[in-house]
Design goal:
The complex is a heterodimer of chains A (about 280) and B (about 625).
Chain A lengths: L1 H5 L15 H32 L15 H30 L9 E8 L2 E6 L39 E4 L1 E5 L3 E8 L4 E5 L4 E5 L5 E6 L4 E7 L12 E6 L1 H19 L19
Parallel strand pairs in A: 1-5, 4-10
Antiparallel strand pairs in A: 1-2, 2-3, 5-8, 6-7, 6-9, 9-10
Chain B lengths: L9 H5 L13 H6 L4 H31 L17 E2 L2 E2 L1 H36 L8 H9 L1 H9 L32 H29 L12 H33 L21 H35 L6 H15 L14 H29 L8 H24 L1 H7 L3 H31 L5 H27 L19 H31 L56 E5 L2 E5 L10
Antiparallel strand pairs in B: 1-2, 3-4
Helix pairs in contact in B: 3-4, 3-5, 3-16, 4-7, 4-8, 4-9, 4-14, 5-7, 6-7, 7-8, 8-9, 8-10, 9-10, 9-12, 9-14, 10-11, 11-12, 12-14, 12-15, 14-15, 15-16
Amino acid sequence: MDGFFSVFDMLAWFPENISTFGQELDNLFAIIYWVSVAIFFLTFGVLGYFLVKYRYSPDRRGYNYHGNSVVEITWTVLPTLLFAAIGLYSDDIWERTKYSSKVPTADVEILVLGKQYGWVFLYPGADGTFGRNAHNDRTARSLMSATNPFGRDTADPAGFDDVMTENQFVVPVNANVVMRGSSLDVLHSFFLPHARVKQDVIPGLWMTIWYNLFKTGKYELACAELCGGGHYGMRAEYEVMSRTDYDKWLDARNAEVNAARTPQPAPTATTDTAAVASLR
Amino acid sequence: MSTSTLQHGSAAEHGHDHEHEHHHDLPWYRKYVFSTDHKVISKQFMLSSLFFLFVGGAFALFIRWQLAYPGQAVPIIGDILPASWATNGVISPEFYAQLLTMHGSIMIFFVIIPFAVGMFGNFCIPLMIGTDDMALPKLNMWSFWLVPPAGLIMMAGFFTETGYAAAGWTSYPPLSAQTGLAKFTISGQTLWTISVFLVGFSSIMGAVNYVATVLNKRAKGMKLFDMPLTVWALFITAIIITLGTPVLAAGLAMLFMDNFLHTSFFLPDNLVTNSTYFGGGQPILFQHVFWFYSHPAVYIMILPLMGIVSDVMATFSRKPIYGYKAMVFAIAGIAFLGFIVWGHHMFQSGMNPLLGTTFMLSTIVIAVPSSIKVFNWLGTLWRGNIQFSSAMLNALAFVSMFIIGGLSGVFMASAPVDIYIHDTYFIVAHIHYVLFGGSLFGIFAGIYYWYPKMFGKMLNETWGRRHFFWTFVTFNLTFFPMHILGIGGHMRRIYDPNVYDFLKGLGGINETVTIGAIALGFSQLILVGNILWSMKWGKKAPRNPWKANTLEWAAPEHPGHGNFDMDITVYRGPYEFGVEGRQDDYWPQWEKGASVTVHHHTIAVADDTKTFGAH
């Protein structure tokens, strides 16, 4: 029976929230939800009452009344105040989560690219800085290709240690993660349901996506913008790690990059995609 | 002498464009096919929209089957599906994308807009303003005759190499530019663009005509504020169409060039793709152009039905519309605001978040005129004498479902909430509450209400009620759970939700929705059966079966070319029900008589010197 009633408790269906601003967004949803529930019962109550009370009877007539300006003004002003309050409160949260001036200082910076059908990520590596690529230098866009999605300049030493991953990424817990997202081909949307993050990524532009996650564990990234037949399978996994685990992970990637570089200097993608249930 | 009377003298006033209509020996193809009679054109729109309703509905059922039972063969017809649609009866992901595109495009461009604007606009405007036909009958004929070819062109996508268009009804580039195909390739998407361009053209021709007709051809004595709300709504809708649709046409022309000729209006440089492009374009530009039309289009799809529902509710509550002028201003307010809110479709698109603030605030303001309308509808019911006819039941469904659809709209209007629910099933739930729960119930109300005047026969009430009951129940069973899917994070337009761990708990809801959708689809057969059965065996309709006030009920039972058999002069507003001092509880607009207004009441007086305009 509990299962049955849970259908009516719509708020219980949210996936668990793991981001700092996520709670605020969920609360705002809940506020609008309860206001809506109240308006719903109010209007449906009035509607139902009128339908029963004023149902047809042959010995009655409809009341000839054309309306009243005081009433009209009242039910114009009241919703205006209510909706203005919701709007202003929403805007406060919107500004803090999305305005570019409010993006926090990055603890970790990652580049992300959507493509048909998957996601690739680029970390700055051991030196903490990216080499020349399509994000920090527009002219490097001409280097972008299916094998070198970020348009990395192989001649730039700062980029030797950059780490690329496919369909999975890792972020540290309790850190400001700032991602710059774009796309190789068509529109995609970077959707982290548990972190309450969604941002379309657009070929030719770099979008700033930021979040701060407070819970470790494995979660999913989905594409939320129709991008072709394989859209549904454009899934990636990410893991929120403790700071130590994250550093270990970075060291391991760093070692891999170095090992791959020693015989032949060329950028390599880590090929541990088998861990992800790739659907392509 | 009224301008609406054809037989005497009006031809001289209107010039030679009506000359042909006086001859009743037109060949059959001019009477039934290439007719310039607004009522025939209205029926043509009704027929084509009903046809496409079932086509679009069938597409939807394929989608629902796949979502509830991913990877299972479609039952019964699975074996006979073409290889490009399904393998071993299982729908392919590519075909799934085509399905959702075609479902949306057909339902919007070939069902709801033609129903709301084409069918009701044509039928109601001339009759309700008491005139013989549209101002520009030939243009009117062409506005219909662009629709079938446009429909065929869109459906012809089936015969192209890549199948139907598959970029969603919104057709965002670069996906819709199909950068993978060579120049000059005609794909389903190319055909889609041409087709929507043509229906847009049809809309514009219809709209220009409506504006001209309403402004020039009203019956004698009919001031603008004597027009029924249906006519007001259609008039304002026509203005939206004339302002918005050309912008869509421009966007589609650019998209067509990107798609077919590989120009780069919307394509940035260095796309990683098989084909060559010049580059330098901006994908978000298309979204701005598209939504500049398509948000007002949402109101094109709902405003006419708001008008119709108001008329139906006044008639069956036996009461004047509460706050008639407020209703008109609310429609105008919605129409105006509709042009400055398009960005709320793009909160997550990468548009500057600063614009998000602007569009959020303007969007939330739209909730105000919408709630004014709802309150006035409730006020209309207050102290009425409510008759639950099929038309009234559907009108009440419109109001109640529009309340739910309006409230769910507040969620996505709030930009921070929209971050999470954008592109999820919450949006799908919302749009169906507004466009099915709203528009389609309004369309049903209109069909039940005007069928007697259209075909001269009464629709069967018992089957009308059954149709309403099943539609209402299964509609809610289908679309309400979609809110929950959306809150669970279920993205729209995905082929198989089971790919994602976080969606695994939603399978049962997806099944419920599908069962509801199948029942909903089959319930509509009752309507079609009723329409066809009543055409032949229905009771003969009296001239004014609902005892309504508006001018169309002054026309004969089954009006022929030219509409009216008497002179029409308008003496009062359209909603004088329950007037004190009268035997009948209604007072038609065309009936002579004087009245005075005391404290928002109308009272009939025996003063024959006052002829009209006494309210």
